[in-house]
Amino acid sequence: MSFNSLGLSDALLKAINKKGYDTPSPIQEKAIPPILEGKDVLASAQTGTGKTAGFTLPLLQILSEGTTKRHRPVRALILTPTRELAAQIFENVKEYSEFLDIKSAVIFGGVNQRPQAATLKRGVDVLVATPGRLLDLCNQNILSLASVEIFVLDEADRMLDMGFVRDIERIIKLIPKKRQNLMFSATFSKDIKKLANGILTYPVSVEATPENTTVEVIQQKVFRVAKGKKTGLVIKLISEGNWQQVLVFTRTKHGANNLTKKLISSGITAAAIHGNKSQGARTKALAGFKDGSIRVMVATDIAARGLDIPLLPHVINFEIPNISEDYVHRIGRTGRAGASGEAISLVSADETSFLADIQKLIGMKIPVEIVEGFEPDPNASTEPIKQGGGRSRSPRGGGSNKSSKSSTKGGSSNSGRRTRDRRN
Ligand code: AMP
Question: Where is the composition biased (Low complexity) (predicted)?
Fold first, then answer.
């Protein structure tokens, strides 16, 4: 299969060629034809599968074949949960539309809205946005979504995790009923299926990797270790393995900062990336990580979601996530595009039930190792770690949306109902 046979225009093929892509990825092969036919698509695809091009290329083709109005109202809206992901998608949209008469823009919170408002005023065909800032600008009448023809909901599962369900509902009310919808999600919980039912009309379902399974080229390992010895073990693994690009996940922002400091003081360049970091600091950390000047990036789940880090050889879970689906997302950072990778989880006694849930979800037992000098503590309690001070997260304005209602206590009963640590 080649890009030529997918029915894409010469201008898009030229841009694809410039990016150096030879063949479409499986999700592109499956998603592009139905999108070009104008169908709604529900796609199961993780970051790293090439899903961005999967929806952007056909979307650009459809827009470029339609009539461009002089004032250029927003005709395609791409909604995504995080600023980083929004920025990345926007970069892709720009690259793929280089040889087309299409204008695109990105808007997200945490930065001054004035330049964004000025860009919108000049006219934008494709808008990439995070929900909060999008609604802000709509409420101020700076932006109208009345001409949206194509609506893309990217990383829908993470949208729900982050408590954006109400915002999505509000946004849907602002766009025309008659439109094409494309929804992407890495996992498919009941809530996601419900959301999809409310948004999509007779969707074509496409899948890049089977639901909730981990890619086989990723070697997964668990190191059973005493809680207090995790930092030492991370330093040992990175130094002795001479690992040059490592993504480490911690459960909390505080944990990310702490570990980063300790890595730096043992001579390993590192940066933390989490919700409390400014946009500038996050962008700088990511750039340093990509160009090799920073060896270790320490991230929380929400911050790391959607980061485009190609060919990452090592991912370490400093703590394993209490939400099992996050494990699948985390290790999806390694072994991308067919390259092999290693995903290591440091598991202390209090994470035993979380590990059981993860193994249940991925349908396999992860091999366990113990490193001499970093043995688990035989006297430690297996009582699960308390999350975020015991109260479940209610991220936006204290509303009781579904994803923030569930209890955080309890053992290994139902990982899908747990909430993420509020300190993430
Ligand atoms: P995504 O899943 O959209 O975040 O894409 C992951 C990475 O794969 C990005 O760095 C893309 O530039 C790259 N990519 C997307 N499509 C292709 C393709 N057909 N061939 C090679 N690389 C690709």
Answer: 401-416
